[in-house]
UniProtKB/TrEMBL annotation:
Biased composition (Basic and acidic residues): 332-343
Pfam families: Ribosomal_L1
Chain residue ranges for the region called Disordered: 332-354
Matches recorded under CDD domains: Ribosomal_L1
Major location (coarse): mitochondrion
Keywords: Mitochondrion, Ribonucleoprotein, Ribosomal protein
Name of the protein this chain belongs to: Large ribosomal subunit protein uL1m
GO biological process: translation
Gene Ontology CC annotation, any one: large ribosomal subunit
PANTHER family: 54S RIBOSOMAL PROTEIN L1, MITOCHONDRIAL, LARGE RIBOSOMAL SUBUNIT PROTEIN UL1M
Localization (cell): Mitochondrion
GO MF annotation, one: RNA binding
Source species: Drosophila persimilis
Length: 354
């Protein structure tokens, strides 16, 4: 490099000033130096590419972000029990009331001297552990109708249409309180567009009309009667009473915590007899317990009684009415009883063989 610079200086000294400068800038050595400098400068430049992100739905945005959420299953069994009447709630275990005590507490807050709503609904919130038989499986969301012994106003319209053949079945359904009862002629009216199924909240059918009812499967879709939803059966009167006066409830899993489910329902007004309210709650819990998975551990984890407009929530013990843990032996006995009912001739053959 030094030899190149010395030759350039000698050339500049031997030539006139203007001519030397012109030749200095036109030399191949200078051009190569400028070319290398430009390439280095280009390499140093970092090209920033902006990637366009399309629209992400609101229910999928948090999936890309690792957000720490608190466990919704509340377990305060490790906390101590308060010995005083006044204490800071978060440091002590929640008190557990009987259903009668909880109803009395709500009645006091809804007294005319306070909220003045004596006929407020008594709501129940039931928290579930939706963990399935396997660690990676969870109980699906379900919607059911629980039959209760004591009727009350639900505040919703429940029109029931019944499909059946035979005069005896039609008379039975009408006496039970069905909104509309019919057979093949009723199916023809619906297929002809003279009657709308959307005007009825519940559809019930007798097995004797099932072959003709298949023509309406496309219109009914999920409302098509079936034994699983208890809308298809021979006892029409019982089904009609259940769907007209029962408690409709649904269990929904949390969006982010799949093993947490919640049920919210009403068991009656506060001015109803306390024993009747308790019996309605008992039947509701027993109906929910029929959906429990075959695994160890609790299915119903916590039950709270509420009554708007009060924000007070009182914890009760649900295991007075349903078993706390799944009993494998009792489930085995039930399966054997069902098997005997389905095939009663099998024990007799075994005795004859012996």
């Amino acid at each position: 490099m030094q030899s190149i610079l010395s030759s350039m200086r000698a050339l500049a000294l031997r030539q006139p000033t203007g001519d030397a400068i012109r030749r200095l800038h036109l030399t191949a050595i200078s051009e190569a130096a400028r070319k290398g400098t430009r390439e280095k400068a280009r390499k140093k430049k970092v090209k920033v590419e902006v990637k366009k992100v399309g629209f992400i739905p609101h229910n999928q945005r948090d999936k890309k972000v690792n957000v720490k959420r608190a466990d919704k299953h509340v377990d305060d069994s490790w906390k101590q029990v308060s010995k005083d009447d006044v204490y800071v709630g978060r440091y002590y275990r929640w008190p557990v009331y009987s259903v009668a005590e909880a109803i009395q507490c709500h009645r006091e807050t809804h007294h005319p001297s306070m909220y003045n709503v004596p006929n407020a609904p008594l709501n129940v919130e039931i928290e579930l552990n939706m963990q399935g038989e396997k660690a990676t499986r969870f109980v699906d969301n379900f919607q059911r109708m629980a039959m209760i012994p004591h009727k009350f106003e639900h505040g919703e319209e429940r029109k029931i249409i019944v499909f059946t053949k035979g005069n005896d079945e039609i008379l039975e359904a009408r006496q039970a309180g069905a909104s509309l009862v019919g057979g093949v002629e009723l199916i023809k009216d619906i297929t002809g567009g003279e009657l709308l199924l959307s005007d009825y909240q519940f559809i019930i059918a007798h097995p004797n009309i099932l072959p003709e009812l298949v023509a309406l499967r496309g219109l009914m879709k999920r409302k098509f009667p079936n034994p699983k939803s208890e809308t298809l059966g021979a006892n029409l009167a019982e089904m009609i009473i259940k769907f007209s006066s029962g408690i409709s409830y649904s269990a929904t899993k949390d969006e982010y915590q799949q093993n947490f489910g919640l049920i919210s329902a009403s068991v009656g007004p506060l001015d109803m007899d306390a024993q009747k309210l308790e019996e309605n709650l008992k039947h509701l819990l027993q109906d929910i317990n029929t959906m429990r998975p075959k695994r160890e551990g609790k299915f119903i984890t916590r039950v709270l009684l509420k009554s708007p407009p009060s924000s007070e929530q009182l914890k009760i013990d649900p295991f007075v009415y349903v078993p706390e843990m799944w009993d494998k032996s009792s489930a085995k006995v039930k399966r054997e009883e069902v098997k005997k009912q389905e095939d009663p001739a099998e024990p007799q053959e075994a005795v004859a063989a012996n």
